[in-house]
Design goal:
heterodimer; A: alpha/beta; eleven-stranded mixed sheet; 11 strands; globular; B: alpha+beta; 14 strands; 18% strand; binds zinc ion; ligase (chain A); plastid (chain A); hydrolase activity, acting on carbon-nitrogen (but not peptide) bonds, in linear amides (chain A); glutaminyl-tRNA synthase (glutamine-hydrolyzing) activity (chain A); ATP binding (chain A)
Chain lengths: 541, 464
């Protein structure tokens, strides 16, 4: 079922440089059979390859783990993707157990031997979970997040906890209280955020897949910046139990992979209703991987009849021209695959940004009240209770977090509630309805994942408004609670440039469609390698 | 176990009440009550930690009640069921979709920095409660408005019931609260125990000259742990405020919370109200809205027991006087015993007399509840029938308190019922009631019940 779906494909191609004017190039390529697999390509799914080689005894879980740990440690000094790396012996012990099971022909889970990075705002009982904040320094939760528990139950091995902007508040991962993560494609640039550590780790092949969280784009924008696949599920698809709350009505745990297949298989393993999260959905979880069609079985127009709406407002001023051309190239490719493309207008699109920042800040001001210095992390000793609270928070929380708490407290205060919080909720309803209409007329909607490629570390650090503006492509999707898949589709400035990702937005709980389209797209997109040069030589897939 | 709380009030001393009458000629009190009812659920409201009902729930044992990062509240559906029952019983309109809100403030025993409550959309609103005032206070029927019923407070499953400012005297307020207690006990949603704090009433009270349309300054009274202290505290407060009014010192009545001091029999200032606290309420994003279907509501509606008010009207129609009505309907188990007795065809007045007289006295002496006694309503019915039919002469004769005499009857009854004896010894211990009835019948209702049961038990359980 899983193993037959994959056809080999090589993503590393010297032809990449010639494909910047994507639309044109793909039109040209149409004459050549775009659906023919390149003979030398490895399988794009690390999860399926792992399973196949473990079960056929071609490799052992221990060897696999060793090679990943080696690469992880080799690049970690440059990248700083991880806040915590599991000791080798802990990882290898789990791998050994799997090897023993395989040797004895015992059943192993679908993610057996898969090495996973977990964003540090997702609770793990055996590792610290700091959410990138000093106030949770050394905090070890007594429980695994439901998503982590499910991963482990499927045989996955957690290799470590990845860096993030404090409590997920930020778009560069510079907001971590501990370290700045570098983009594997250009070490002087940010990996995006807030799940920058997870994106960088998957991009640099420090782990196979990773969990992130997405409140306003925190999975999708770093996926775009780091040239990996990022999947933001429908709100409620994945339990939030164990996800350190930032903005509860928007937060969702998401998936990173180096292929659509990996993101989909990962999503399948963590999805489903959870008794511990009243907002998790009882909707059935489809086996996404069973929808994947191998390249050799694809018809010539595999996406025939699929209606694709390109969101007009996302390809306007303020978006880098190379981003626009890469996304238009991706759209043309979808057209080649049989999709019917039209432009749709979402006039409420620009309202999303202020509405998002008001709602997210309001909820965060409440969610973060619990960090009072009494129960977790660093306590500053105070003469009396209020100064204990105040001093602990002053020292334990970073400036971006404090700013959002202040903004949120303000927006919820008597006298301002109607003008801010309530108004933002009304905007949210408008946005939700406009997406609903657009998704009745279209199967999926398309936009860039971010208005630019990865920018320099420090570039927007002192300009929060510029940083917030970068979230324009993604925040609307959280407000509407919809699923979205970001996958790399091109480069800015040729093959040596930085990856560009585009975003496909689907109807609620229609991840299946996004993954199916993404999987075909990825297999048939010619000429790109999304392995960063940093690790290209040592990475054989 | 349920505390044997006296819901009936003792009249205040004459002088006090005369003073009170005098005051009420010129002034009117306006009283509203906020009641918090702890629900008898097995687990806490938002996690599956066992909830030690009645005990102080200060032990936080799971990630949810500790407010750990990443933990989420999940509503115990039993809480909704209780709220719907109470809402229906209070004749409220139920909100088909209500929601939870966060009420935010820092407090040491509030781990998350906020409480989960219902703010602007309560689960039920706009109801009323019927009250029959005790005869010794002049009796009379009252209908008091209920503004809202909402789900309130984290952790402890709590229901808040807010009345309209419809009460005018301490007695009315205390009877309102007593009726709420009766109601939650009838519904089985709480033990309604005031001393344990399962039922807590905070009273808002203001006084104004008759004819003045606007309310006077409102004072809140807390620490009321019985209905009689409630009644006395309110009357004290009415007098205090009326006095200030009559002395031209009404400005000395300030918005504040006062405590009732049982020892000194007066209210004292606890804290003055400072500016309104801003709790920055907003909808709780971790919990979905509370959506009630018409089906769900009607299922619960159909499962409601006969409520105190209906019961009282029915008893009244049976020809009982109000004193009897109030006594019998006060406790759902007593009422059930009475209903079962008259269902056997027993004379209504005689059944009431038996229950309110001999049986009540026996229960009081033995510190038992009516569910603990062996006499069944069927047996009581039979007994009443035989008295009425003349088998047992009119006025019941002297009680048989001689153990040897009772023993003889017991022996005879056991000998005459070998089959039942065998069944009893085979495990059907419920048959004890049958034997007791037989003995009672043989003794023409004169056997001392305690003695009877003691001897009967010994005989039944002795090795053959
Ligand atoms: Zn608990």
């Amino acid at each position: 079922m899983l193993s037959s779906a994959q056809a080999p494909r090589l993503l590393r191609s010297p032809a990449a440089a010639t494909t910047t004017a994507a639309a044109l190039t793909i039109k040209c390529l149409h004459t050549s059979p775009i659906l023919t697999p390149a003979a030398t390509s490895p399988s794009p799914s690390q999860i399926l390859t792992t399973r196949k080689s473990l079960l056929s005894r071609q490799t052992s879980a221990v060897d696999l783990a060793k090679s990943f740990l080696q690469r992880l440690r080799r690049h970690e000094p440059q990248l700083s993707s991880f806040l915590y790396v599991s000791p080798d012996d802990v990882v290898l012990k789990q791998a050994e157990e799997l090897d023993t099971k395989i040797k004895n022909n015992e059943e192993v889970g679908p993610l057996a031997g898969v090495l996973v990075g977990v964003k540090d705002n997702i609770c793990t009982y055996d590792m610290p979970s700091t959410a990138g904040s000093r106030i949770l320094e050394n905090y070890r939760p007594p429980f695994d997040a439901t998503a982590v528990r499910k991963l482990r139950d499927s045989g996955a091995i957690v290799v470590g906890k990845t860096n993030l902007d404090e409590f997920g508040m930020g778009s560069t991962t510079e907001g971590s209280a501990y370290q700045v993560t570098a983009n594997p494609w250009d070490l002087s640039r940010v990996p995006g955020g807030s799940s920058g550590g997870s994106a960088a780790a998957v991009s640099a092949r420090q782990c196979m897949v990773a969990l992130g969280s997405d409140t306003g784009g925190s999975v999708r924008q770093p996926a775009s910046f780091c040239g990996v696949v990022g999947l933001k599920p429908t709100y409620g698809r994945v339990s939030r139990y164990g996800l350190v709350a930032y903005a509860s009505s928007l937060d969702v745990i998401g998936c990173f992979g180096s292929s659509v297949a990996d993101a989909g298989i990962l999503l399948h393993s963590i999805s489903g209703f959870d008794n511990f999260d009243a907002t998790s959905s009882k909707q059935e979880v489809p086996d996404y991987a069973s929808q994947f069609v191998a390249l050799e079985y694809l018809e010539s127009k595999p996406l025939k009849g699929l209606r694709v709406g390109v969101i007009h407002e996302t390809l306007e001023n303020g978006v880098d021209s190379e981003v626009i051309s890469s996304v238009r190239g991706a759209v043309s490719h979808l057209e080649e695959l049989g999709c019917t493309v039209s432009e749709v207008s979402l006039p409420s699109f620009s309202l999303g940004l202020p509405a998002y920042y008001i709602l997210a800040s309001s909820e965060s001001s409440s969610n973060l009240s619990r960090y009072d210095g009494v129960r977790f992390g660093n306590q500053v000793f105070g003469e009396e209770l209020n100064s204990l609270y105040g001093d602990s928070r002053a020292e334990g929380l970073g400036s971006e977090v404090k700013m959002r708490i202040l903004m949120g407290t303000y927006a919820l205060s008597a006298g301002y509630y109607d003008a801010y919080y309530k108004r933002a909720q009304q905007v949210r309803t408008i946005i939700r309805n406009s997406f609903k209409d657009a998704l009745e007329k279209n199967d999926i909607l398309i936009s860039p994942a971010a208005p630019s490629v990865a920018y320099k570390i420090g570039e927007k650090k002192n300009d929060p408004l510029a940083m917030y503006a970068g979230d324009i492509m993604t925040v609307n999707v959280n407000l509407a609670g919809l699923p979205a898949l970001v996958l790399p589709c091109g480069f800015d400035g040729g093959s040596a440039g930085l990856p560009v990702g585009f975003q496909m937005i689907g109807a609620a709980f229609d991840e299946e469609k996004l993954l199916k389209i993404g999987h075909i797209f990825e297999q048939t997109l010619p000429g790109y390698s999304f392995v960063p040069p940093l690790v290209a030589d040592e990475w054989t897939g | 176990m349920q505390e044997k709380q006296q819901t009936q009030l003792k009249a205040s001393p004459k002088s006090e009440s005369a003073k009170f009458e005098e005051v009420l000629k010129n002034y009117e009190a306006v009283i509203g009550i906020e009641t918090h009812v702890q629900l008898a659920t097995l687990t806490k409201a938002f996690c599956s930690c066992p909830y030690n009902y009645g005990a102080q729930p200060n032990t936080s044992i799971c990630p949810v009640c500790m407010g750990l990062p990443g933990a989420l509240p999940v509503l115990n559906s039993k809480v909704i069921e209780c709220a719907v029952k109470v809402g229906l019983a209070l004749n409220c309109k139920l909100s088909l979709s209500s929601k939870f809100d966060r009420k935010q403030y820092f407090y040491p025993d509030l781990p998350k920095g906020y409480q989960i409550s219902q703010f602007d959309i309560p689960i039920a609103a706009g109801g009323y409660i019927d009250v029959d005032l005790p005869v010794e206070f002049g009796g009379g029927h009252r209908k008091f408005g209920v503004t809202r019923v909402d789900l309130n407070r984290a952790g402890v499953p709590l229901l808040e019931i807010v009345s309209e400012p419809d009460m005018r005297t301490g007695i009315e307020a205390a009877e309102y609260a007593a009726e709420l207690q009766r109601l939650v006990r009838y519904l089985g949603v709480s033990n309604g125990n005031m001393q344990e704090g399962s039922l807590r009433c905070d009273v808002n009270i203001s006084v104004r000259p008759h004819g003045q349309p606007e309310f006077g300054t409102k004072v809140e009274i807390k620490n009321l742990n019985s209905f009689s202290s409630m009644s006395r505290a309110i009357d004290y407060e009415i007098l205090r405020q009326a006095q200030l009014h009559s002395e031209g010192e009404a400005h000395q009545i300030v918005q504040e919370t006062r405590l009732w001091e049982e020892g000194a029999q007066k209210t004292v200032t606890m804290r003055k109200k400072e500016g309104l606290a801003d709790y920055r309420y907003f909808p709780e994003p971790d919990l979905p809205g509370v959506n009630l279907s018409e089906d769900y509501i009607s299922t619960i509606h159909d499962s409601l027991p006969e409520l105190p008010e209906t019961k009282r009207r029915r008893y009244e129609n049976l020809g009982l006087n109000m004193q009897d009505v109030l006594f019998l309907a006060n406790d759902i188990n007593v009422a059930a015993f009475f209903d079962a007795t008259i269902a056997t065809g027993a004379d209504v007045k005689l059944a009431a007399n038996w229950i309110m007289g001999d049986i009540a006295a026996y229960l009081k002496n033995e510190k038992l509840s009516i569910n603990d006694i062996k006499l069944t309503p069927e047996e009581l019915g039979e007994l009443i029938a035989s008295i009425k039919g003349g088998t047992i002469s009119g006025k019941i004769g002297k009680e048989i308190a001689d153990p040897s005499e009772i023993e003889k009857i017991v022996d005879r009854v056991i000998a005459n019922n070998p089959k039942q004896l065998e069944q009893y010894r085979g495990g059907k211990t419920r048959l004890q009631g049958y034997f007791a009835g037989q003995v009672m019948k043989e003794s023409k209702g004169k056997a001392n019940p305690a003695l009877l049961n003691k001897i009967l038990l010994e005989k039944l359980n002795s090795k053959p």
